[in-house]
Amino acid sequence: MELFDAIVRGFKGLFLIAIALIVFGTILLLFIYFVRRVIRGSFSQDKYLGLSSETFDLSANIENDNRSGLDNRSKFKVLLLMLWYGESFDEARTRYVQRAFSSNNIAPDGRPRDPKAVFFA
Questions:
Q1: How far, in Å, CA of 79 to CA of 93, rounded?
Q2: Taking a C-beta distance cutoff of 8 angstroms, is the pair 93, 87 a contact?
Q3: 46 and 14 share a domain?
Q4: How would DSSP label each residue in 58-113?
Q5: Are 58 and 46 in contact (CB under 8 A)?
């Protein structure tokens, strides 16, 4: 009888963990879905989302421009960096570019890390 009670308690704990993971996963997927729907838009929406600064000014692109705005995937990643690290747009954009550089084997100063690379001065 004690073994049965221990098994039932174990299943209850696993059940609660499974429910918590399902709820957390659903909330995360809904968050990602809504954020992706919000970030698809024009340059004026990009500026409204905070994806503009003095060094990256979108004001010139807002007037008489029918393009769809900034790249959606990059906007999403930069917005997540801004939220996660509490950074400004410029700081998050710099972090995004540095990560893109490192994943492509490029040093932070822009030079390739390939040992076979030849430089001419």
A1: 9
A2: no
A3: no
A4: -HHHHTT--S--S-HHHHHHHHHHHHHHT--HHHHHHHHHHHHHHHTTB-TTS-B-
A5: yes
Q: Rounded to an integer, what distance in angstroms lies between the CA atom of residue 45 and that of residue 94?
A: 21
Specify which residues 106 forms β-bridges with: 112
If you average pLDDT over every residue of the chain, what do you get? 83
**Count of structural domains, the chain:** 2
Same domain as 72, residue 59: yes
Instruction: Check whether 109 has a pLDDT greater than 90.
Output: no
Q: In which domain, by residue range, is 35 found?
A: 1-39
pTM for the full model?
0.64
- Say yes or no: 67 and 48 in one domain: yes
Max Cα-Cα span within the chain: 82
- 84 in the same domain as 50: yes
